């Protein structure tokens, strides 16, 4: 069985300007606050300004880009509150996907999930580990067999790209994530929807804690946001 396509994966040169800009955001080549200058982007991607302009418009419609006075288009900065809300919603949506997959996934789909996680455990390259993690989540969402849920998760995932490279570039997080996947797989194999949802929520919340720590260490939270984090529930 072929592996599921990552809906926002790394892309070769032949893909659209929009896809390639999304990929640059994912990899941290375009960081929050970076101005998106059409001439520079067109030169770097080897495209005319027209597809670049359209790509920027699409990114703005997605909520990833904003227009600032006297500056033009730039990649948005997410506030602390937005990061909290996004991860809360991710826990809800992917938790629901896990619950549905416990009921709807075929045995073949469960074996595929196990194979992906086994590859992830063996991987020692951060970029490959992150790719396999995305593939695992994409396979689970497909196994839930709900097109509207899949669409909602895809929209949320695009916004999360603003945060840059995966938390799995942290080796300790990578090992823990694979263990969390294994616990989730146990619940799926038992066809226990409630347990699968709980374990997926725990998995997302663990990633959330690492993400907040990364943002703090990188100085990407303002003083007010840092204070809010220190007094918040985490």
From TrEMBL:
GO terms for molecular function: DNA-binding transcription factor activity; sequence-specific DNA binding. Keywords: DNA-binding, Transcription, Transcription regulation. InterPro entries: AsnC-type_HTH_dom, GntR_C, TF_FadR/GntR_C, Tscrpt_reg_HTH_GntR, WH-like_DNA-bd_sf, WH_DNA-bd_sf. Residues 11-78 form the HTH gntR-type domain. PANTHER family: TRANSCRIPTIONAL REGULATOR, GNTR FAMILY, TRANSCRIPTIONAL REGULATORY PROTEIN. This is Transcriptional regulator, GntR family.
């Amino acid at each position: 069985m072929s592996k599921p396509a990552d809906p926002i994966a790394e892309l070769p040169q032949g893909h659209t300007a929009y896809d390639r800009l999304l990929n640059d955001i994912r990899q941290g080549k375009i960081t929050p606050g970076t101005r998106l200058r059409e001439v520079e982007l067109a030169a770097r991607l080897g495209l005319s300004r027209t597809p670049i302009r359209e790509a920027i418009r699409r990114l703005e419609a997605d909520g990833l880009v904003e227009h600032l006075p006297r500056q033009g288009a730039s990649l948005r900065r997410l506030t602390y509150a937005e990061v909290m809300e996004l991860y809360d919603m991710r826990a809800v949506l992917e938790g629901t996907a896990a619950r549905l997959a416990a009921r709807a996934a075929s045995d073949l789909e469960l074996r595929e999930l196990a194979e992906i996680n086994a590859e992830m455990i063996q991987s020692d390259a951060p970029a490959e580990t992150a790719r396999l993690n995305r593939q695992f989540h994409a396979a689970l969402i497909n196994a839930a067999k709900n097109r509207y849920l899949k669409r909602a998760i895809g929209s949320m995932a695009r916004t999360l790209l603003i945060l840059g490279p995966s938390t799995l570039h942290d080796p300790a997080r990578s090992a823990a994530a694979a263990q969390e996947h294994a616990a989730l797989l146990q619940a799926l194999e038992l066809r226990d929807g409630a347990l699968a949802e709980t374990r997926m929520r725990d998995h997302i919340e663990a990633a959330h804690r690492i993400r907040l720590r990364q943002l703090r260490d990188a100085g990407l939270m303002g003083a007010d946001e840092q204070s809010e984090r220190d007094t918040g529930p985490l």
